[in-house]
Design goal:
four-stranded parallel β-sheet, 16 helices
Length: 519
């Protein structure tokens, strides 16, 4: 009696459709075996494509047949057994050698004769042709999608695949949440673990309802899709979808990933006003605070180095009283603040610059457009060189990705400039007003606001030998290095004295500076 193995296979990745399809095959084959009095000894089911060799369950079944456990196979159709030449050849070889004496299909006739084996070869060939042809059709569709700027894959978190138009659109449920997380990570205050918790709190979870894996989150943070580009097989393409963030913000995210620093803990409200404000100028460790109570009962707060360094022997043994530190902080704020008189003069000068700068703005925009056309021309020449065989694929992809990134940067600069115009002038106005407001912190003696103000505009705050040092960011450093008479009221200055203010044109035009004189 011929013994049979039942073999059922489904290649789709959709779990529900897999189970239903395999159950349907099994039921049909069981009914077929019962109607034809076939002796089935075992059933094999597999959820894997047959377009390439290497199916483990299929190979196990053939190994059992080679050992003589059975000599027949019952399947729904020959294409369930093989869609590639190797697996199809193995089946035919086992028929030739007598290991398989019977193949039964409800939808196909087979006998182990020359004609039957020829028809079986044709059936396997048709299955392979269908797979190959389907692959070409899919690749052609993918190429068309790439030309239209559409990602031929599943949409990343924050977007969804629109089934009707076959496009990728922002997901109204998750788009703003993902954007919020990306903006938060760009601040540099988050680690992967902390942003994972934030995403979980916003409802951004995996299919199992658990927090997203750190590797998944890192993939989101490095995905160019969110700023309007996308990678497909190592090559960068311009997307037609709605960007979630700008390229500038994406670059900040990459910098934050490189730093991979732990978030600074929020300063707990204690009785120490300047705790966490500065580091030791010798060893680099934080300055801590201590409260000392004198015999008289008076309390004093002192600041000193924590001396936690194991490699640097810090010699900073002197304590700095809080009152003395407060005086130095007040002096720094005064040097970067503007009196009311200079506030009005500076604002009036900004209005003049606004009128004068119209021509230079147009020239800057034209320069960006020219540079953009040059990059596009390079991309076209690079493509021609690749098509003519002058470049290998890895070299082509590397150079194209660099040019596409540069193209995106220029497009964003041009877009920002056209949208904001002379935005640097508005930044100048805000800076002048903020510098003028700092004067009020000094007049009010508000050291809490003075501390926050200096933390915002200054970096590398250190204390060494009881002296506070701060490095100011631009443009605050211009104010800091102005002579004292420049900030004095006009009646206190000598005749002919002027106040020079150097101001860069800001992010809209980072290539040159303007020197302006406020008289």
């Amino acid at each position: 009696m011929i013994k049979y193995f039942i073999y059922c296979r489904k290649s789709t990745e959709e779990e529900e459709r897999q189970i239903l399809s395999i159950e349907a095959q099994l039921q049909e084959l069981r009914d077929f075996a019962k109607q034809n009095n076939l002796f089935v000894v075992r059933e094999f089911t597999e959820k894997q494509s047959a377009k390439e060799p290497g199916r483990p369950i299929f190979n196990e079944m053939l190994s059992r047949i080679e050992k003589g456990e059975t000599n027949g196979i019952l399947a729904w159709n020959p294409d369930r057994l093989a869609r590639n030449s190797i697996d199809g050849g193995r089946i035919i070889y086992l028929v030739d050698t007598g290991k398989i004496t019977s193949l039964k299909f409800p939808t196909f006739w087979f006998e182990p004769t020359p004609q039957g084996k020829f028809m079986l070869s044709v059936a396997f060939g048709q299955a392979k042709y269908y797979t190959d042809n389907l692959r070409e059709n899919i690749l052609r569709g993918i190429r068309q999608k790439l030309r239209r700027g559409e990602l031929p894959a599943k949409a990343p978190l924050g977007y969804f695949n629109e089934p009707r138009l076959r496009t990728i659109e922002p997901d109204p449920k998750t788009f703003k949440k993902v954007k919020q997380c990306l903006e938060s990570f760009a601040t540099g205050e988050y680690t992967l673990t902390k942003i994972q918790s934030k995403m979980f709190s916003l409802g951004l979870v995996g299919k199992d309802g658990k927090p997203l894996h750190l590797s998944t989150i890192q993939g989101i943070l490095t995905n160019p899709f969110y700023y309007g580009m996308f990678l497909y097989r190592g090559e960068l393409y311009q997307g037609s979808h709605k960007p979630m963030i700008t390229k500038k913000l994406f670059d900040k995210i990459q910098e934050a990933l490189k730093q991979n620093s732990k978030p600074r803990k929020k300063r707990k409200e204690k009785q120490f006003l300047f705790l966490g404000f500065a580091r030791c100028g010798e060893c680099g460790y934080m300055i801590t605070a201590e409260k000392h109570i004198k015999k008289s009962g008076l309390e004093f707060v002192y600041y000193r180095c924590t001396k936690k360094s194991k490699t640097i022997k810090c010699s900073q043994n002197r304590f700095l009283r809080e009152e003395k530190l407060a005086e130095q902080i007040k002096d720094y704020v005064q040097k970067v603040s503007l009196p009311d008189e200079w506030r009005e003069k500076y604002l009036a000068k900004v209005n003049e610059w606004e009128k004068e700068n119209l021509h230079s703005s147009e020239l800057f925009a034209q320069n960006l457009k020219t540079e953009l056309e040059k990059v596009k021309s390079k991309i076209n020449r690079l493509m021609d060189a690749y098509l003519e065989g002058d470049l290998e694929l890895p070299e082509f992809q590397l150079k194209k990705n660099e040019l596409m990134t540069k193209k995106k940067d220029i497009e964003e600069k041009l877009s920002d400039f056209e949208r904001k115009g002379n935005h640097w002038l508005e930044l100048t106005r805000n800076w002048i007003i903020e510098a003028n407001q700092a004067k009020n912190f000094v007049l009010e003696g508000n050291f809490s606001e003075m501390r926050n103000f200096l933390q915002k505009i200054g970096s590398n705050r250190t204390i060494r030998d009881k002296k506070l040092t701060i490095e100011f960011k631009k443009p605050w450093d211009y104010l800091y290095f102005l002579p004292a008479e420049a900030r004095a009221p006009s009646e206190a200055r000598g005749e002919g004295e002027t106040n020079r203010l150097w101001w860069p044109q800001g992010e809209s035009n980072p290539y040159f500076h303007l020197e302006r004189v406020v008289s």
